[in-house]
Amino acid sequence: MSATAGADASPGDERPLPEDACIAALRRMYGARGQAGADHILPFLTDDFAFVPAGTDRSSLQEDYTGPAGFARFIRRQADWTDDTWWPVLDEMLVGERWVVAVVRVETTRTDGTAGRFRILHRWQRRGGLFAAFRSFVDDQAAYDRFHTATDADSATDSAGQP
């Protein structure tokens, strides 16, 4: 949970970086569930925040989500599809000046009863005290793709009826 402070630090000189508001919000997000969790991080996303979920292009959840509204839309769509059982549990977080890497695990069930269990790496890019981008990488891509490509996923809409 620490990173080398500053580019001029000597080897072995590792000091924890201060916990700023954006990192504190990220920790609160991982400590909550569903939309309530996402609400913690939305004020800390840049207007041009970019998120591309891990996985397959065959799922209707797979697209580029932009800005806080795009991220909130993805969270709603995923929650609707999994009865809000998909929410990552934080195992470890590494904080750097420009990047935050979170190792999470998810145990979830789709609305059709299909269960999934995944370990996922979340990579958050920081810019000016906010998060500018987010990527996720999964430990078992084939299982993740199977979970996300069922007929149920291909017809996923959010609670507002949006595809």
Could you explain how this protein is built, in words?
This is SnoaL-like domain-containing protein. It comes from Nakamurella endophytica. Residues 27-132 form the SnoaL-like domain. It holds the Pfam family SnoaL_2. 28% of the residues lie in helices and 31% in strands. The N and C termini lie far apart (38 Å). Helix 1 (21-31) packs antiparallel against helix 2 (34-41). By secondary structure, the protein is of the alpha+beta class. Strands 2-1-6-5-4-3 form a six-stranded mixed beta sheet, sandwiched between helices. A hairpin with a 3-residue loop joins strand 3 (89-95) and strand 4 (99-109). It has one domain (21-154): Nuclear Transport Factor 2, Chain: A (Roll), CATH 3.10.450.50.
CATH top level label: Alpha Beta
Share of residues in strands = 25-35%
Model regions low in confidence, pLDDT < 50 over at least 5 residues:
1-11, 13-17, 152-163
Rg, Å, rounded: 16 Å
Protein name: SnoaL-like domain-containing protein
InterPro entries: NTF2-like_dom_sf (IPR032710), SnoaL-like (IPR037401)
Organism: Nakamurella endophytica
